[in-house]
Amino acid sequence: MMANYQDIIANYKDKKGGIIEAYHALQREFNYIPQKAVAEAARVFGVSEAQAYGVATFYSYLSVEKRGKYIIRMCESAPCHVAGADKVLKAMEDYLGIKVGETTADGKFTLELCECVGQCQATPVITVNSQPVFNVSSEKIPEILSAYK
Ligand code: FES
Question: Is 126 touching ligand 1 by the criterion CB < 6 Å?
């Protein structure tokens, strides 16, 4: 059961720098910071909505774009690239029906790229909510992704 954004924000109400911690907590829960949560944060932390939005978009690890339950990332650094990351990425785009940077209509998957995750012994590598999946191939993509409900 998902926590609601009001409760999450309220937890950080009296903390110094609480707005950033609240955003992190929101992103852990929802994978992004919903617009209505930005408005709530502005109210709770006593700043304008523009300021609250500014904080949310300043840090590259925070996202205000709607993202899926599962964030799938393709490693695009050289070793994975040489091992066929392009083909794997294409297979994921075909399977999910979206392009890099997009989220499926059902809100389940977001497709992104990432740098080397330090698992070059098992290229190509994808990550699912930051957990690496090793030795991926385009043929294995339907089986791998269908396991996520
Ligand atoms: S280059 Fe992909 S995991 Fe290192």
Answer: no
